[in-house]
Amino acid sequence: MNPFLEETLKQNEINNVVPLSTGQLEFRGLGIAQFSPTKASEDTLIFSAGIHGNETAPIEILDQIIQDIVDGKLTPSVKTLFILGNSVAMKQGTRFVEHNLNRLFCGAFKEPRYAGSDEAKRAEELEQVVKEFVAGSNSGLVRHYDLHTAIRRSKKQRFAIYPFAPGRSLNQQELALLNAADVNTILLQQNLGTTFSSFTSREFDAQGFTVELGQVAGFGDNDLSKFTGIDHVLRQLLVGKSDLGHAEQVDQYQVAEEILNTGDHFQFHVPEDVWNFSDFEPGFCIWSDDQNRVVADDRERLIVFPNSKVPVGHRAGLLVEKINKS
Predict the structure, then answer these.
(1) What is the total count of domains within the chain?
(2) Is 212 helix (H, G, I), strand (E, B) or coil?
(3) One domain, residues 220 and 295
(4) Who's near 259: CB < 8 A, 6+ residues apart?
(5) Which SS3 state, helix, strand or coil, does residue 136 take?
(6) In this structure, is residue 254 part of a structural domain?
(7) How far apart are CA 179 and CA 177, in angstroms?
(8) Same domain, 7 and 79
(9) Is 295 found in the same domain as 181?
(10) Would residue 93 count as lying in a domain?
């Protein structure tokens, strides 16, 4: 574990500048670092991890990249913001402390039910940090990879979620980058969300993704050799290389239904141990309440992110359907 992560877990803010041959690396507080190149780069990068504190592999990947920059083993050329999101939850080894940080962006932190919580304060802080970062950049492409690992096992080991943003479309180069990162499945959302990648997508027209890279494990328990694809792509982007991979190898799905906890009468009938991207036999009741009963039919719809233990109004799962052929 390197000093950046160590100090973040200790809740210590780092405020210093490391001069480099191609620019400078500035530590800007708790879990935030920014590389600024001497020669202005057209595009900008945002790499985030630890928005959920127990999703440790991506945190370790970013920490090692930053240490390699400090040690001169990696020479970046693209302006980049690095973020370790929920330091308190990271220290506790929990997904969050009071509220799911990845539901509090796009101004959702202002809602009264979240007021005063650590996660609400952090979401507001991160929005402001990103706004300042992008405002001080050129008018080129903004890429945001928000890196996660999933709570449960998945039939698709790695996949990305592409947030909906009005007027924005997914291009072939971004699909090729995901493929080069061994992320061979993407979900296209159809409605506005309040995740971190939704914020950057909506606010800055970023090519933003929530990237799921495997299953949750504790610090020191990750086999980072399983993450070489994403590590390679992040490093290539940092040195200005973005022509990677083959877009046609990525399977695309769209969200057919977002299942929300509707209240006291809501029942989510999906077993707790079901894997992501599982399907259902026709006739199986997926969820119900006092007014609705949603039953699987002959259409192939798969479940992603099933979680019955969410607050009222929050997402209990997604039903997705494939929109391209393998």
Answers:
(1) 2
(2) strand
(3) no
(4) 268, 286, 287, 294, 315, 316, 317, 318, 319
(5) coil
(6) no
(7) 5
(8) yes
(9) no
(10) yes
CA gap 222, 229 in Å, rounded: 15
Look up the CATH number of the domain holding residue 276: 2.40.50.630
Element (H or E) spanning 304, and its range?
strand 302-304
Query: For residue 263, what is the DSSP state?
Result: S
Same domain, 153 and 220: yes
| 68: containing domain | 3-249
Q: Do 269 and 152 fall within a single domain?
A: no
Does one domain contain both 209 and 304?
Answer: no
Active site residue 212: yes
Residue at which a domain ends, from 249, 275, 294: 249
The span from the CA of 279 to the CA of 58, in Å, is 28
Q: CB within 8 A of 87, min separation 6: which ones?
A: 8, 9, 11, 30, 31, 50, 53
Q: Of 55, 60, 127, 212, which residue is the catalytic one?
A: 212
The Cα 138–Cα 129 span in angstroms is 16
For residue 84, count other CB atoms closer than 10 A to its CB: 25
Q: Letter for the amino acid at 182?
A: D
What does the DSSP assignment read for 12-55?
--EEEEEEETTEEEEEEETTEEEEEESSPPSSEEEEEE-SSTTB
| pLDDT of amino acid 325 | 53
Indicate the residue type of 91. K
117/244 same-domain check? yes
Number of CB atoms found within 10 A of residue 252's CB: 16
User: Averaged in consecutive runs of 10 residues, what is the pLDDT profile of the chain (326 residues)?
Assistant: 92 94 95 95 95 97 97 97 97 95 97 95 98 89 95 89 91 94 94 95 96 90 93 97 86 93 94 92 95 92 91 91 74
Q: Report how far residue 247's alpha carbon sits from residue 250's, in angstroms, rounded to the nearest whole number.
A: 6
User: 44's torsion region: left (phi>0), alpha (psi -120 to 50) or beta?
Assistant: beta
